[in-house]
Write a structure and sequence with these properties.
single chain, alpha+beta, five-stranded mixed β-sheet, 5 helices, about 40% helix
Length: about 230
């Protein structure tokens, strides 16, 4: 709180300066806009970093309930499509009738982090590239249930790849190194694991949230018509 409390008045002050005085600037308006935008953007970055530190330090105890993993994936994909309309976020039709015993808020946060990382990996590409793409899918069998996210971003480093899930380890200039650490902890709290590899379909990274097998609704037996003599 001591760090985050001053951020709101700083941001509001910068926004007020821009609203009140922008029309009065007669020279070098570009510098004025660049400076106020930088203040607002950097304050937002600091706020997000503080939120990540807080989330990692105060990870709540999971509150387990029965949830539909297909709906959880749909919600995450929908949110990313709204946040990143310039990226093609594709989702394979997930299997229905699954019941996942989990803390849906925590697993939803893990999915959000993974999808956000994929979008940031695409934004981090340099030079001309094909349109950004993210593939999201859900697979379930007798061995495990997996959320699988692939992207055509910058990919994962070959060196020290296993350390990317450690706290404070990051390859991004503005990263805190807590996003994947939080995802890993959430997966482990649910008896699962986080797997990182090269994409199989696209050219970037493949991230798998792997959980123990889930319950699947059994198919309803077909009703048969009773046959009687003379019918």
């Amino acid at each position: 709180h001591e760090i985050k409390n001053p951020l709101t008045p700083i941001q509001l002050s910068a926004e007020r300066l821009r609203r009140k005085y922008r029309h009065e600037i007669t020279g070098d308006l570009e510098t004025f806009d660049r400076c106020t935008d930088t203040i607002i953007r950097q304050v937002g970055d600091i706020g997000r970093m503080v939120d990540e530190f807080s989330a990692f330090a105060r990870m709540p105890t999971p509150k387990f309930g029965s949830h539909d993993p297909a709906e959880m994936l749909r919600a995450g994909v929908f949110a990313l499509r709204v946040a990143s309309p310039d990226i093609a976020v594709e989702m394979a039709e997930p299997p229905e009738g699954l019941t996942f015993t989990c803390d849906d808020r925590m697993v939803g946060q893990a999915l959000t982090n993974v999808l956000k990382n994929a979008a940031e990996a695409i934004a981090g590409r340099s030079g001309a590239h094909e349109k950004g793409r993210i593939l999201a899918s859900l697979h379930a069998d007798e061995q495990a249930m997996c959320f699988i996210i692939e992207d055509n971003g910058v990919g994962l480093p070959t060196r020290d790849r296993d350390r990317l899930t450690e706290p404070y380890v990051t390859t991004r200039e503005k990263g805190t190194g807590l996003g994947l650490a939080i995802v890993k902890r959430i997966a482990e709290e649910h008896g699962g694991e986080l797997l990182l590899s090269d994409a199989q379909t696209l050219s970037g990274a493949r991230v798998v949230l792997k959980f123990p097998p889930v319950e699947q609704a059994s198919a309803k037996p077909k009703r048969t018509k009773k046959v009687t003599d003379g019918v």
